[in-house]
Amino acid sequence: MNVLRITGGLCVLFAALLCASARADGVDAAAPFKLLSGQWQQGSLLRAQTDPAAQVWFDGRKLRLDAHGEFVFGLDRDAAPEAELKVQLPGADAPQVLHYQVAKREYRIARINGLPPKMVTPPAALTARIENDQREAREARDHDSDLEGFTQSFIWPVEGRISGVFGSQRILDGQPRQPHYGVDVAVPIGTPVRAPADGVVTLAAKDMYYTGGTLMVDHGHGVASTFLHLSKLRVKLGDVVKQGQIIADSGMSGRATGPHLDWRVSWFQSRVDAQLLVPPMPVPAAKKH
Fold first, then answer.
1. How far does Cα 239 stand from its chain's mean position?
2. Which residues pair with 271 in a beta bridge?
3. 0.70 exceeded by the pTM?
């Protein structure tokens, strides 16, 4: 069972009912919220709903609730084995505190060879540029808006062969580097990239050192999509975008060994698996002979 224990003003009978009714996915009819999507595993984005007048905290961070009481939070690629969700219902003397087990995932090892040496170990002269790129991306991920694109069913920004998956440990020319936080889709340069959900552009950079053409779209409540290695940006900072709208063209700019789109999803600074938010990649139609 995912629910470990509950504390904070709950009677013994309620606690017994809670533990008895908990299911393997962490959804609980007696809990002060309803889990709408996601699972208690590393890399998952979980969406839930409670009383709109409630207050909710995840691992100590107070969360936004929309008018329907929906809220969202993410479990990082390397999330700890246990997470805490606290819900203060209106009129309650104390918040209900629930602790959940977070399932550990096994990640692939991706070995990539043939990169230019400067893309594996950049010259010291480029340190300031790289640090500035990273700062801009961190600041964009910190947006906490009341947008509600995160409540939509996400769509694939492009369709094609999946060539890289979330969480894989990157070995670049034999040297270990940080994990891969996105899903790579191999598509030709210039393939239209569509917004997976409604949002606002919070980062539009034509040439970041590692990621080349880079675009970030805020979907609300800390959820954001980032698109890397683009050849062209079709929107600018501050633009409102709708689901399915063409926002960029795919490419192979920055540190890339071939044309593809690297699509990433984050909840603030936590990296989550974009592939868990969309249906299976459509199978391409068979070519006619």
1. 21
2. 266
3. yes
Q: How confident is the model at residue 179 (pLDDT cuts 50, 70, 90)?
A: confident
Tokens of 23: 């299911």
Better pLDDT: 199 or 10: 199
Burial code (b: 16+ CB inside 10 Å, e: under 16) for 269-288 equals ebbbbbbbbbeeeeeeeeee
Distance (Å, whole) CA 200 – CA 140: 11
Pairing of strands 192-194, 182-186: unpaired
Half-sphere exposure of residue 46: CA atoms within 13 angstroms, side-chain side: 23
Nearest by Cα to 214 from 198, 225, 223, 199: 225
As a whole number of Å, the end-to-end CA separation of the chain is: 52
Using CA atoms, how far residue 140 sits from 137, 243, 245, 266, in Å, is: 5, 20, 21, 11
Supply the mean pLDDT for the chain. 86
Q: Where are the alpha helices (DSSP H) in the chain?
A: 12-21, 117-120, 127-141
Can you give the length of the chain in residues? 289
Phi, psi of 119 (to 5 degrees): -90, -15
What pLDDT is attached to residue 126?
Answer: 85
> What is the distance between the alpha carbons of residues 120 and 125, in angstroms, rounded to a whole number?
14
Distance CA 252, CA 244 (A): 22
- Beta strands 199-208 and 192-194 are unpaired
Q: Give the list of residues 6+ apart from residue 236 with CB closer than 8 angstroms, or none.
A: 201, 204
Q: Can you tell me the mean pLDDT for 144-155?
A: 97
| Count of beta carbons in the 10 Å neighbourhood of residue 214 | 26
Give 142's contacts (C-beta < 8 A, 6+ positions apart).
268, 269
